[in-house]
Design brief:
The protein is an alpha/beta fold. It contains twelve helices and eleven strands. The strands form two sheets. It has a nine-stranded parallel beta sheet with strand order 2-1-11-10-9-6-5-4-3. It has a two-stranded antiparallel ribbon with strand order 7-8. β3 (about 55), α3 (about 65-70) and β4 (about 85-90) form a beta-alpha-beta unit. The longest helix has 17 residues, at about 125-140. The model has no long low-confidence stretch (mean pLDDT about 95).
């Protein structure tokens, strides 16, 4: 039953991260053909932005070492509809690899805290921004859409609560490089709705427009949907989610899975917010992927809709 709530966007775009952020956290390496089929099924479910893979050195993310093999297999996904297939790149070498295969959207991955920057990027925050500068510039020169991920926007397992002003400084610097879009990451899932609203307001005051912001919540404390709703009430129209709730963060051991795309779509369908996603097809896709992984989906909606007596 659809019961719209006032003050929400009429439509949002889901940035699906299951094929990249989800699968990179699996202990086993998923076969390339299964990954390609996963992306195809996600597109058939109506998802228009599907983060396909990562051009990170295989030493750091062996689960996505097949990026060169996978990406060319996804050419037919465009036939499903107007589907964007962005990829993660860590540096100029990763950008070279992505551009060579015709990628039209990339993402760089920064940190709001020094400890996570050191552990994830082996650099300080400012050193990582300097590393991203030529990556973003070259991508923009090539006509490629650039997303900037910012991790640890709400809390850090080593540093504790992250001051809003600290996040705003790094966010402004990242956008100042020329990124088209900023994704705010609650990497360990400690955000609450008031904190989300405060950060978004502070970013607006600092000149970062809501229309350029996406949100990326983890469900460690069961707050991902409530945090998402707070962001939507602020005007955010891009939400990251992972089919079946796959994923976490290999560098932050307390992080549990991403917000499940099905849980997000169930809530938005009930609120009358359009996503373009068919929940039944998406649920079937996550059930299929769970079978490939040999374990049930952690998504509550997937479990509810796929339950058989």
């Amino acid at each position: 039953m659809r019961v719209p709530a006032p003050g929400l966007p009429p439509r949002i775009r889901i940035h699906e991260v299951g094929a990249r952020d989800g699968l990179q956290n699996e202990k086993s390496v998923v076969p390339t053909g299964v990954k390609a089929e996963f992306v195809r099924r996600l597109a058939e479910a109506g998802l228009s932005t599907i983060e396909a893979t990562s051009f990170v050195h295989p030493k750091w993310v062996p689960q996505l070492a097949d990026a060169e093999q996978l990406f060319p297999m996804l050419g037919d996904v465009a036939d499903v509809g107007d589907v964007a297939l962005p990829v993660l790149v860590p540096n100029e070498r990763g950008l070279d690899r992505a551009l060579a295969l015709g990628a039209r959207g990339i993402a760089v991955f920064g940190s709001a805290t020094e400890t996570f920057a050191a552990r994830n990027l082996n650099r300080t925050v400012d050193e990582s921004l300097a590393m991203f500068e030529p990556v973003v510039a070259r991508a923009k020169d090539a006509g490629v859409h650039v997303r900037g991920y910012l991790s640890m926007c709400f809390g850090d397992p080593w540093e504790g609560a992250v001051p809003v002003a600290q996040v705003v400084r790094v966010a402004r610097a990242l956008m100042g490089l020329g990124c088209d879009e900023l994704s705010l990451g609650d990497t360990i899932g400690v955000a609450t709705p008031g904190h989300v609203t405060a950060l978004l307001a502070a970013l607006n005051e600092a000149g970062v427009h809501t229309g350029t912001i996406g949100v990326h919540f983890h469900d460690t404390y069961g707050q991902a949907l409530s945090n998402t709703l707070a962001a939507l009430q602020h005007g955010v129209t891009t939400v990251d989610a992972s089919a079946g709730g796959l994923g976490g963060c290999p560098y932050a051991k307390s992080a549990t899975g991403n917000l499940a795309t099905e849980d997000l779509v169930w809530m938005l369908d009930g609120l009358g917010v359009e996503t373009g996603v068919d929940l039944g097809t998406l649920t079937a896709t996550s059930v299929w992927m769970a079978e490939q992984l040999g374990r049930p989906s952690p998504s509550r909606t997937v479990r509810a809709l796929s339950h058989k007596e």
